Amino acid sequence: FRNPVHLPRAVDTRRFDPAYRDPELRARWGLKPDGLAVVYVGRVAAEKNLDLAVRAFRALEALRPDARFIWVGDGPALAQLREANPDFIYCGTRRGDDLARHFASGDLFLFPSLSETFGNVTIEAMSSGVATVAYRYGAAAEHLRHGQHGAAIAPHDEAAFIDAACRLSLEDESRQWMGANARQAVEPLRPAQVAADFDAVLEGIARRRSHADVHAALA
């Protein structure tokens, strides 16, 4: 391939916006105003490596007893997860503005999956202004900057994943700063901008072909 052009995947930055943060929703989760909402959004299934998310939360919970783990999604592993962890908060599948509220009302997003083709939820969390811990894979490898937007962990390094979750659970100001940085970083990924960038690519191709046709006719 010659002259490749990278066109990033878009995220709806108008929907996934920190403005959707909802204190009433957080209160229903049993959180005080300064409590820590740890969020997972996605399919609840074995391929998502969710045992690591549970272990990471239990480790940070020992440091932050005010933390709550919020699960948004459904899947074949949900019943087993509920049985083993009845203290977690299970919100089921959410869509639209309701999903946006659940994202933005979190403080820390944990995403331990290593089975994604991309992983839209990573950039949706970033767009929602939520610091993220994820493996440096898929969307996280492309967009999540370690130490700036959360923690991008080398794939399969479970100890580092858990350590990052624990560290960020204690660093409230840094975590909020990272969430704000994450939001700013993905703002250029709004659909209108990505579509405009795609139009520009097509226009460039058309111009080059037109020039080539002219040269061929004059040869």
3D architecture notes:
The structure is a single chain. With 219 residues, the chain is α/β, with parallel strands linked by helices. Helices cover 48% and strands 11% of the residues. The chain contains nine helices and six strands, in the order H-E-H-E-H-E-H-E-H-E-H-E-H-H-H. A six-stranded parallel sheet has the order 3-2-1-4-5-6, sandwiched between helices. Strand 1 (37-41), helix 2 (50-63) and strand 2 form a beta-alpha-beta unit. The two termini are 26 Å apart.
Count, helices: 9
Helix content: 40-55%
Q: Which range does the strand content fall in?
A: 5-15%
Low-confidence residue ranges: none
Mean pLDDT: 94
Question: What would you say about this model in short?
Answer:
The chain is α/β, with parallel strands linked by helices and 219 residues long.
Q: What keyword list fits this structure?
A:
219 residues; elongated; 9 helices; alpha/beta; 48% helix
Annotate the secondary structure layout.
Elements lengths: L22 H6 L8 E5 L8 H14 L4 E5 L5 H7 L4 E2 L5 H9 L3 E4 L8 H8 L3 E5 L3 H5 L6 E4 L4 H13 L1 H15 L4 H28 L1
Parallel strand pairs: 1-2, 1-4, 2-3, 4-5, 5-6
